[in-house]
Design a protein that fits this description.
Blueprint lengths: L1 H15 L5 H7 L5 H32 L5 H24 L7 H6 L10 H8 L14
Helix pairs in contact: 1-3, 3-6
Length: 139
């Protein structure tokens, strides 16, 4: 178990320190309540990374416990790689979008709502526009 944690921690730190959360953090600083909104984003981001890293570490321990790598693990790896390649090709063919992306416009008016952390959206989903805590407030 210690070896698995030693392998996963550097990867988790690389994800946590990546430049991805910098963009929404900067936008959240220009909201009406920047400290609260940025604090909720940080809490969601950190808890999301911890949840995903824990789940993947548990999966790695399970796979390591097997005598051989399970067939489903190899097929899952190949399937995920194929999905990522198809998604990259689709995005590349669509070309650059015109104007400001919707998620950037949404973040300028974000309000903090603890039950629905936006950080989870960035960590697990990759698209913040689907999370209601980052939608514009009514009115």
């Amino acid at each position: 178990m210690d070896a698995v944690i030693a392998e996963v921690v550097p990867l988790a730190l690389g994800i946590a320190l990546s430049p991805v959360p910098v963009v929404p953090a900067i936008f959240l600083l220009f909201t009406p309540r920047p400290r609260a909104a940025a604090g909720m984003f940080l809490a969601g981001w950190v808890s999301g990374i911890l949840a995903v890293a824990s789940a993947l570490a548990a999966l790695a321990v399970y796979i390591e416990a097997q005598e051989e790598t399970p067939t489903w693990a190899s097929w899952t790896n190949a399937g995920l790689g194929t999905v990522l390649l198809l998604a990259a090709a689709r995005q590349w063919r669509s070309g650059p979008a015109e104007g400001t992306p919707a998620w950037m416009r949404t973040l300028t008016d974000a309000t903090p709502r603890p039950p629905r952390p936006c950080g989870w959206g960035w960590c697990c989903r990759g698209s913040i526009r689907r999370w209601s805590c980052c939608r514009r407030p009514p009115g």
